[in-house]
Write the structure tokens for this entry.
Amino acid sequence: MSPVASPYMPEIHDSTVSALDIPDDLTIPQFFLDTAHAARPDRSSDTPCLIEEDTGRKIYFSELRERTFGLANALSLRWRIGEGDVVCILSPNHVDYPVVIWAAHRLGATVTAAEPSFSTVEEIAHSLIATNASFIVVHPDFLKAAVAAARKADIPVYRIILFDAVTGSGAPASHPVLNNLIQDGLKLEAQFEEKRLSAGDAKSKVAFLSFSSGTSGLPKATAISHYSVIANVVQRAVHNKVNEDHAPLDEQRFRPGDISAAVLPLFHIFGVTNIHFMLFCGMSTVVMPKFDFQGMLKSIVRHRITHLFLVPAQIVLLCKNPAVKKYDLSCVRFCLSGSGPLPAELAQQLCAIFPNASICHSYGLTELGTTVSMTSLSQRIAVSGSSGSILPGISTRVMTEDGRLAAPGEQGELWIKGPAMAMGYADDQTATLETFVDGWMRTGDLVYIRDNEIFVVDRLKEIFKVRGFQVSPAELEGHILSHPDVVDVCVVGVPDEYSGEVAMAFVVLNPDAAAQAQRDLKQSRKAKMGIMKHVVDVKANYKWLSGGVEFVDTLPRTATGKLLRRHLRDQARESRAR
């Protein structure tokens, strides 16, 4: 579809790419481990890059470079990993996760990752086959699944190595342990010659095959270049004026020596770009193996964490769980919500939980190298409903249903182009052509733009119509979450003979309310009516929960916290069809 010219709104351009100084002849490790940049502050020698959460072990810049070289040397010598290979990482967050990434990239290989905790052997095998992976680095807890998946994908078991030794029995001889390989590699002269790229090559060299969240279908392997990751980090640095003397040090958003938490999974590209951004800013990152709510609160206090990158599901826990009051969280000076819209009510509660913090929002997609917008540096608290201002170097269009450019403030599908945009979907030309059109990426998100800020209404595929009126599940979920008894919610459209579809809510109650509802059917009905009235009191009648309320113990989500709405929608429709 080609856009129709509009007299109301031209393309929005924040700035030119050339002003960002993004090198296009470097790989990711060459840029982040070997190269200085004007936007990059100096890192103090006593500031660690990574901190292991449980042990407090600190890894400094020089050790990171050494470990990367040692592993690359061993992988080259023993398995001849190099150009054309795809290395799959199957592990929760680990301090050596970045080392594996950079070692593979030093050798010219591509990196992919599979979600370990909730994936079946078949799903892991699908990831291996879809990316043509030839080597696996796995956490010992998932070795059995990795071996089974490798067999299905025709990967020899001797091409599987472990992050750590198997507890108790030691690692089998056929599965070497990462640290031993690193030490072996450091004892030898270089067994490989690192490729130097020509101008422009970083834009076409695939660094990651990263799977999209797959909330509306099977995840697709997105091809992300070395240039894309570098560009997104530089864009974020320029947007936040990193290494610029624009304000007193204590008022600057990202400073050398600050401490962030890697609580988001590193098998997702958002977690990957975050850890590279922290490294670029001269900050330390506490690597948490997985998200554990109480553990995160303890870690914030123990490590004096200053920066949090979270998703709305985690923020809901912060705002709804009474355990938060037991912890002194005054050290947090920055909290960002990404990966989905944050209801205004939760943003207000977050300000009380982190009184010393800037509360920021961001918007992004895997296909765009993650971050597209972030709360402006001039705003300590994000504008309600906004996903932030557009990063430098990004152009946007808002396209209406009839194919014209939207007027200012008018809703439509967001189209984006920028330097961090992905190359397309691996081995899926049809999906690539549908999503990437004439240099633009169609996001599938319904938005409007005001004063250079993006306001996300909802996913176009998730919006449903009641008597011809559009209903946004995200809008209703944000309001329902303000009910004191509700800790989580998912709204779906279900078939209705008169209205076409009507709204239905799957609700997780807080423990006290849930216990009352389970004990007494009358109390359960009363609680459901109370939630429905909560909507009736403030929303138009076509947005009411005419499909009812169903209480559930948990909601299905991806590892990055996104609702698997299609699962509940299918469940609701099957139930009503009986």
